[in-house]
Every structure is written in structure tokens, then in C-alpha cells.
């Protein structure tokens, strides 16, 4: 981005003179600022969505790290025996790295959120859970099920991957959608600014003719319009970002239990990302207006 | 500096101007006459590159107008001050800023030029109208402002299209004086007009050649004025 310093310089130094040669335009200016603001507001949410789904996908990806659960329901007398049989069988299953029966306390902890701490779960016929860690390549779930059927009739294999993979995929898609939305928002901003700039150029045809008569170069004429639209887009986007961030801040805070919706916010360094939106809107406006102005001017005689 | 070589121009119908050759020497003073509709404005437009000849060549400062890009044209217009018949301004800016516009767009708005501006505004009798907006001004005032705008860059050439069309005799004399003054400073001047009195008045003070457009041709008018 070698043009960026020039762009920034033109913002800061500006050319108040060049700006003055184009008559002020109250209402269209407000419309441009409003459109840039609305687009920035939407961009905030698209960005928040992308970041949240990104985090979610990463978390699910971790969980996917090859774990599954074997659940054994058996009459009380056979529980220990079937558990031992299942562990033995798992040890000899290719693709299973380790298998471990959860202790009564661990199972109690898992149930506590549902039944409360006071329930005497020791007295209930709770299934025994075996936690399985897979190797990188994983095991053949269908084959394992077949063998379990023969040797451990009370066992049910819960292959997490089955339902997590599509969820992870969905999260990935959502993130992609978020990114596509941001690109669309940028393109729409460019479109709106181009239309507004074209309208401004058409409305100021006489001004342009006069400037040409007195020897103004196209670049000078373009500058007057470019500066104006860039500043409007910057201002609008800044307002939109503030509004969007306020709205995100008002969302419920992210919970450790990690619901998807409660995670729709900015965390850590990603709080800085929205700050990029106004300068980006300015850059988009700069190039959109410059392109529109140069094209319009080059068609004149 | 401005050179027409076998130039012809047509707006689409028959040729309006044919076979025109002319070399504007530096420091020369020309009048351009001819009946209304003869093509005086068209001729001047060829001279400052606003129109491209349909045949033949026009060279501005040794550059063929066909080879000039838009920036070249902008640069040429800084060296050729033009007073249009229907002078146009930026209606939202005071007339003083409009007169200073050529300086503004070429980045030459210096303090020295600023005092020149005041002087110039007085010269054309607009000293106390500096803050007026163009739409508030009379036709004559606009013409005087247009002349001031055309000369503020101290151009090499001044082309004026009926600059005295809307002003009274006294003011037209003053505008003429300004142009003669510029000519004495070495500027090349061409004035399109059908005001014979103006031409006579000038001839007593400056060596002016009179060109006439008749039958699509450019002719040098004799001493029969
Ligand atoms: N843009 C144009 N398109 C078509 N015809 C034009 C155009 N401008 C001028 N003309 C015609 O060319 C002729 C000469 O016009 P002009 O150069 O303005 O003459 P003058 O300035 O001597 O009065 C006129 O008949 C006019 O109608
Ligand atoms: Mg005319």
C-alpha cells in the first residue's frame, strides 16, 4: 500500500482551496455520510460474527481432537465385568490410543448440573462411561460397534465426531459468510460513493467547465471531489463504528459455558479491528471517487 | 505560438471554415470581424484548442492539438487567456475569487499576485464589487470580470470574444486600453468584434491587423475601415 501515505497526507494537509471551488452540497453530503455510517454499522456485526464463529470453530476443532465415549448400561451385577471387557477390547482396537473408565466422582460431577449436588446418585442405575482417546488416524467405528455387540452387549459407542464435524463445518461456513459480508459491504460502500460522486460531478458540470477554461488539470478538479467524499465516508464510518460497538457492548457478555450467541462480541486484541473500518471506508471512498471523477472528466471535451 | 495550417472546421454539416492558415506572431494585435454566424467564435475555439480541426493542423506553442492530452490542454490554457462571449463563473464564489481562479488552480496564489488582483479589479472598474456574487452582476460587469480573469495569469496570448458587447463606450475604451497595455508588454492579442468604432479607436494607438471571416475564408482586411 504505497499510496496510503499520500492518501493520509491529503486528508491531513488537504486542499481547502480545491474544496472551495465546488459548491457546498448539504443534503447529498448528509446522505453519503449516512450511507457510510450504516455500512460501517453492518460491518461491525459481520466482523463480530466472523470472529465469534472463528473462535467457535477453533474450540470445536479442539474438542474434535479425537475423543469419543463408550456408555455401558448393564444390570448391577454385570457392570464391572462388562466394563472390564470393554476396556480389554478397546486396548486391542487399532486406532484407540487410550481408554479410561470414569470414576464415580467424575460421573457425579457430570450429572450435578442436571440433578443438583444432593441427589444420591450412587443409588441410581447410572451407565458407566468410558472415555476414549483416538490416535491421529482414528479407529473404525463400525468395526468397533460390531465387536462390542458380541462381547459387551450393554455398550453404546458415542462417536462425537459424527455431530461435531458438521457443526464445525457450519461454523466455518458462517465465518466465511461473515467475511463475504464484509467484502460485500465494502463493495456496496464503493458503489454508493461512486453513484453519489457521479451525481455530484453531473450536478457540477458548469463548475467543471469553468475550471477547465481557467486551466485546471483533471487531477485538481478530481481532488476537490475526492477530498470531500473521503472525509464524508470517514466521518460516517466513524459514527457507524461507534454505534455498532455500542450495540455489541450491550449484548450479554460471553459465558464460559460458551453458548454461540453469548460469544458474539470482540475479545482481546480483536477490539482493535473495528478501528480499521473508518480508515478503510475512507480508502474505499478515495479510490471510488477518484475513479468516478477521472472517468467522468476524461469523457468531457 | 498559435499556428493554423490549412485548417478547416465543420460542426457536422458543410464546412464552416475552410483552408485557413495563420500564424500569430508574438506581440501581434489582431481584430477578427465578420457577420454574426460567420464563425468568429468557432475560429477562436480552434485557436485555444477547444475544438479540434476537422482537417488541417492547429499548433499551440509548437504542439499539434491532436497530440495534446488533457493536461497539455490545461497547460496551454494557462498561457492563453480567453474571454468568452458568454462568460461563465463559479456562481457560489465572490467575483474576486473568480478572477483569481486561474491562479488558484495553478497553485500560484501568492501575496504578490494578490495585490495584482486588487489592482486589476480596479482597472476593470470592479474595485468595490469584489465581494459580489456573479449572478448578482450585470452583463457588462461580468464581461469586465471575465477579461480580468483572462489576463490575471499574465498569459502569452489573450483571445477575447466580443469583450465589449455589453459595456458602454467609455468602458469599452477602458477594456481596450487594458488590452493595448498588455500588448505593449509583449502579449499577443486577438479580439473578435463587429464594433468598427472600437477597431478604429485601437488603430490610432497600436499597429493592429484586421482579419475578416467571409465565405468560410479568413481574409486580411485592407485599410478600408
Ligand atoms: N456547437 C455547435 N454545433 C453546431 N453548430 C454550431 C455550434 N456552434 C456554432 N454553430 C454554428 O456555427 C456557425 C458559426 O457560429 P459562431 O462561430 O458562433 O459564429 P460567430 O461567433 O461569428 O457569430 C453558426 O451558424 C452556428 O449556428
Ligand atoms: Mg460569436
Write the layout of secondary structure elements.
The complex is a heterodimer of chains A (301) and B (225).
Chain A: H1 4-12, H2 16-20, H3 26-63, E1 67-72, H4 79-91, E2 96-101, H5 104-115, E3 128-134, H6 141-151, E4 155-158, H7 160-203, H8 205-213, H9 218-249, H10 277-299
Antiparallel strand pairs in A: 1-3, 1-4, 2-3
Helix pairs in contact in A: 3-7, 3-9, 4-6, 7-9, 7-10, 9-10
Chain B: E1 2-9, E2 17-24, E3 29-33, H1 40-47, E4 55-60, E5 63-64, H2 70-79, E6 80-83, H3 95-99, H4 101-105, H5 111-123, H6 139-151, E7 157-161, H7 169-184, E8 188-192, H8 196-203, E9 208-214, E10 217-220
Parallel strand pairs in B: 3-8, 3-9, 6-7, 7-8
Antiparallel strand pairs in B: 1-2, 1-4, 4-5, 9-10
The complex binds adenosine-5'-diphosphate and magnesium ion.
Radius of gyration of chain B: 17 Å
Shape of chain B: globular
Strand order of the largest sheet of chain B: 6-7-8-3-9-10
Q: Average pLDDT of chain A, to the nearest integer? A: 82
CATH superfamily of the largest domain in chain B: P-loop containing nucleotide triphosphate hydrolases
Give the total of beta strands of chain A: 4
Number of helices of chain A: 10
Q: What string, H for helix and E for strand, traces the elements of chain A in order?
A: HHHEHEHEHEHHHH
Distance N to C terminus of chain B: 28 Å
Structural class of chain B: alpha/beta
The helix count of chain B comes to 8
CATH class category name of the largest domain in chain B: Alpha Beta
Reported for the largest beta sheet of chain A, the result is: 4 strands, antiparallel
Fraction of residues of chain B in helices? 25-40%
Radius of gyration of chain A equals: 31 Å
CATH architecture term of the largest domain in chain B: 3-Layer(aba) Sandwich
| Gross morphology of chain A | elongated
- Ligand types: adenosine-5'-diphosphate, magnesium ion
Q: Tell me, rounded to a whole number, the average pLDDT of chain B.
A: 90
Number of DSSP-assigned strands of chain B: 10
Protein name (chain B): Cell division ATP-binding protein FtsE
GO molecular function (chain B): ATP binding; ATP hydrolysis activity; transmembrane transporter activity
InterPro entries (chain B): AAA+_ATPase, ABC_transporter-like_ATP-bd, ABC_transporter-like_CS, ABC_transpr_LolD-like, P-loop_NTPase
Pfam families (chain B): ABC_tran
